[in-house]
Amino acid sequence: MAVEHKYVYDFAEGNRDLKDLLGGKGANLAEMTNLGLPVPPGFTITTEACRAYLATGREPDGLADQIAAHLAALEQAMGKRLGDPADPLLVSVRSGAKFSMPGMMETVLNVGLNDRSVAGLAQQADGNQRFAWDSYRRLIQMFGKTVCEVPGEEFEHALDEAKRAKGTTNDLDLDADDLRGLVDAYKKVFRKHTGRDFPQEPREQLDLAVRAVFDSWHAERAVLYRRQERIPADLGTAVNVCAMVFGNLGSDSGTGVAFTRDPASGAQGIYGDYLANAQGEDVVAGIRNTVPLQELERIDKRSYDELLDIMARLERHYLDLCDIEFTIERGKLWMLQTRVGKRTAAAAFVIAGQLVDEGLIDLDEAVHRVTGAQLAQLMFPRFQLDHDIQPVAKGIGASPGAAFGKVVFTSARAVELAGEGEKVILVRRETNPDDLHGMIAAQGILTSRGGKTSHAAVVARGMGKTCVSGADEIEVNVPAKRFTVAGRTVVEGDVVSIDGTTGKVYLGEVPVTPSEVVQYFEGTLDPEATDDALVHAVHRIMTHADQRRRLAVRTNADTGADAARARRFGAQGIGLCRTEHMFLGDRRELVERLILARTDQERENALAALLPLQRADFVDIFREMDGLPVTVRLIDPPLHEFLPPLEQLAVNVAVAQERGEDVAQEEALLAAVRRMHEENPMLGLRGVRLGLVIPGLFAMQVRAITEAAVECARAGVAARPEIMVPLVGAVQELETVRAEAEKIIAEVVGDAGVEVLIGTMIEVPRAALTAGQIAEAAQFFSFGTNDLTQMGWGFSRDDVEGAFFWRYLELGIFGISPFESIDRDGVGRLVRIAAEEGRAARPDLKLGVCGEHGGDPESVHFFHDVGLDYVSCSPFRVPVARLEAARAAIETNGSDSR
């Protein structure tokens, strides 16, 4: 007889290591249960059940019976039956994926309540009729919206109408009779949109709620959030069924969220929000402003002291900042959830440093716990405030940063304007999960309600978006597209600035100043001379990161100024110096003359004029990189970048002819441009092909590089040039260029003692597939992943990102643009093949990458795994690459405290 697959686990059966199976929430509820903390009893339906349901459209065999068995055990533990008219057990049904997705999937509270058991619930609460009817109206509202897709605003309108009839704006002023009437109104809304009465059978409610949670894995907002946070789409969600405990039983009850450290700054202390006489969704929804957690000491000291003790215990157990949800039911504290808390980038670095000081983790683990993406956030500028710039409002600094933009009041408008290139600030009373599109599009989020644990705050912190919440001085009028504050009216399109650190709101655009972290990297802020906790933490972690990483980090730089800045940021050389950038501006005419030359003399004259200019360029760069390698890519532009546009030139000639002007010179230029015109210049006469077709072009550049290196060497500057031949697809191309280059190098270097390496860029798929042959003629490879991606996928970056990438992302064909993060399976495989076959042919072959992927955190890990020697990226991404290279090394070799 086959053994039935286990789809349901009691809380006492799991632990925190089972997140893949039980989801993060279920695994942590199990962990707290096993720690002996006050967790209401319940059970978890696994992610395997969810995946089976989503694959077939029906529950897997055996699931219904397993739920029934665990429900019976829960009823026995609580001494109540689900939906019992006299003494009902009510349960919550909550999602819980492996990775936290706050507000993105569904929750239904008070499941099991119906027309008969509402009286029994009131009897449980010592006759508290208001509590019972409030719980029932919440069930109908949540069930209707979540399970049956009834528009949420219909319920909100009914609630607003009930409050207007009562002459109040606070739902706590509604009494039992008001709420009984509201239940009737909600039932009518439910029937209007579903064609049926609200289900009265408790088990039907439970089963439908479970399926709704499963289905919410594919809800639009959940898909969008996973894409934004790079969460795999095939994980599924667990479902947690938990005995209800009630925070809405009166003034001695309530609900809250607590953090063991400040998730915004990392500072140690007591942080969180508490809301008396409320259920948990009221806190995160931001529909009523909370009080600081410290107020709980005055309201209920016994529960407060117990909570602090549990918070300390959980932090020691998880060795990290913990985010905790709790409910107090008539003075009894219940723990509803814990997880390693989301935090801002600044808090991540500060907390990691604190935990090292406290002996809870080592420096390897500290490096592992911060990310390059967080470090990049810390390098954004902040507001530069003069004394005469005064805020018009102040809320809660929920997610740090300095953001300004045009005010918009709907997510749709935010997406629309952002798509037109505008910076926008999304202003709402409070956000909800349906606002995710607008939050992603906006520079920052401003709400008039909510606290540090509201939906806006939690989601913004996770995305690294600036957010100010709970600015209750602001009166938001969404239909009128305006808000009023301090006697002033701000309409859609007006510019505001928000400070997510201080919570201050300013009218107009406030100027910005570089962050302290950038000042530290640039060497203008001494970490030993400041008491800034963030700078200290960044310095400490980056110092250890540099000791732990194997990958070197170079920069992409074309000028001495860029090279100098990158070196201050920690660059260990230049991995890509684009010489075509040196030919723009005033030199463009010389290149044009070179390309269009009809005689050898014309060509030689143009090259002679370019040589000293190129030599001076390289002297400047070698001086800044004294002692560090500089990889110079020989000229690699599509020809059209240096020629006059064909269409415009033809029009100019035609107009001049019409006027009877002498156009002989223009006609000659037009004929030459037509002769050189290409339908697809990115795949035409460029790179090595251009160097082979135009005699003397590469020779001039090789001479300029070598003469500059010799000049620097004789001046005491250690120049280490590496000449890179672009767009090679066959070893014969490289051999031809190398033979000519070596003659020039030997002639110029003489006894100066300068070594010049010659290598190639691997950016053509054929080069990757014949890397063993090419390595015979190359001293180094540098992977040009931009072109390798274009040619590997067969599309042009300039054309396709706006044309159809959005649809590919929407359909899940891409999890992320392959130009942003390396396509490991396709383009990455070409890199791996070239690295392995190149090293097999030449064991001392140096391997690097110089495309945009060199500064992408995920891609850096791949390049470490493949065995490259270095990555190269733009100057501002150098610190990011340094950190991620260390994280990759630690993940490969392990850490003592992990």
From TrEMBL:
Annotated ranges, domain Pyruvate phosphate dikinase AMP/ATP-binding: 64-289, 296-346
EC number: 2.7.9.1
Keywords, alphabetical: ATP-binding, Kinase, Magnesium, Metal-binding, Nucleotide-binding, Pyruvate, Transferase
UniProt-listed Pfam families: PEP-utilizers, PEP-utilizers_C, PPDK_N
Catalysed conversion reaction: pyruvate + phosphate + ATP = phosphoenolpyruvate + AMP + diphosphate + H(+)
GO molecular function, one term: pyruvate, phosphate dikinase activity
InterPro entries assigned to the protein according to its UniProt record, in alphabetical order: ATP_grasp_subdomain_1, PEP-util_enz_mobile_dom, PEP_util_AS, PEP_util_C, Phosphohistidine_dom_sf, PPDK_AMP/ATP-bd, Pyruvate_phosphate_dikinase, Pyrv/PenolPyrv_kinase-like_dom
Name under which the protein is recorded: Pyruvate, phosphate dikinase
Organism: Micromonospora cathayae
